[in-house]
Amino acid sequence: MHDYAALRPEEALHIREDEYERPTQDGGWGWLHLTGATVAVGNGWGDGDGTVEHRSLKHRGRNATRDVPATSALCALLDRHIKEYPSGPNGRLFVTRRGPGGYYGPTAGQPVTNNAYGTAWRKAREAALTPVQQRSLLAMRPYDLRHAAVSL
């Protein structure tokens, strides 16, 4: 999501299936209609009782939206993800999943945790980068992809 659309991680976690406008033709571009951000906060540090808050987009008004073009490659990834992992009960695309015996189904729609996100990112770096690159700052955090996409 980051390298195809330069989204902030909290924007990607907030996307609902109805905010994804699919391409009108095969191989075409679609749109992401961003409406907010899902932010992990520590106990006692947020406005509510939980550790997750749904907020407005950064530097925008409460009801502001942001339309982001989605490349054909990103649309293909999203379509495959939605087919394999239907959205949660709240419509969010990226929610926690668990189940015995290898069965994974949507839970109550809680967003993917920072810990799970970080673990997946570390494993991806190990699989994709050489040992020297892994020791460097190259794509150290998922947010680094946003910086790379913006600079291009």
TrEMBL record:
GO terms for biological process: DNA integration; DNA recombination. It comes from the Bacteria. Gene3D superfamilies: Intergrase catalytic core. Keywords: DNA recombination. InterPro entries: DNA_brk_join_enz, Integrase-like_cat_sf. One of its GO terms (molecular function) is DNA binding. This is Integrase. It comes from Virgisporangium aliadipatigenens.
